[in-house]
Specification:
5-stranded mixed β-sheet; rod-shaped
Length: 138
């Protein structure tokens, strides 16, 4: 795996994101869940959702997909046996989603002319049409 192997003071093996991204083949399939790196290669055939689900996430961050499914406690325990290390702390910000902000639209205030002139014009047109109609009918 060509890149320098790093370990934390606690003995946790760190993997760089570039190294994890290369592990997206049938021979080697790694995913990231909550900054932990999992080697799921041997689990591809056994995965209840099918291997395609894992292959889609291979080499990348699968945290959201993993949590959206609502995996059982047993599944989480099984997954813990596949942990091979953690994502290097310097690469963690590269996979974190940007904070979603709610877009609010500014309330458009109607100007004074639309409140005054438009109804006045409509009233004038209706009055004019009424006069033309009544003049023609006499």
């Amino acid at each position: 795996m060509g890149e320098k192997e790093e370990k934390s003071p606690a003995g946790v093996k760190y993997f760089r994101l570039s190294e994890i991204e290369k592990q997206n083949s049938f021979k080697s399939t790694w995913i990231i869940i909550h900054n932990k790196v999992y080697d799921v290669t041997k689990f591809l055939d056994e995965h209840p959702g099918g291997e395609e689900v894992l292959r889609e996430q291979a080499g990348g961050n699968a945290t959201e997909s993993f949590e959206d499914v609502g995996h059982s406690t047993d599944a989480r325990e099984m997954a813990s046996s596949m942990v091979i290390g953690e994502l290097h702390p310097d690469d963690r910000d590269k996979i974190s989603k940007p904070v979603e902000t709610l877009v609010t639209t500014a309330k458009e205030e109607a100007s004074w002319w639309s409140n005054l002139i438009i109804p006045t014009l409509v009233a004038a047109i209706v009055t004019l049409m009424y006069r033309v109609y009544t003049t023609n009918s006499e």
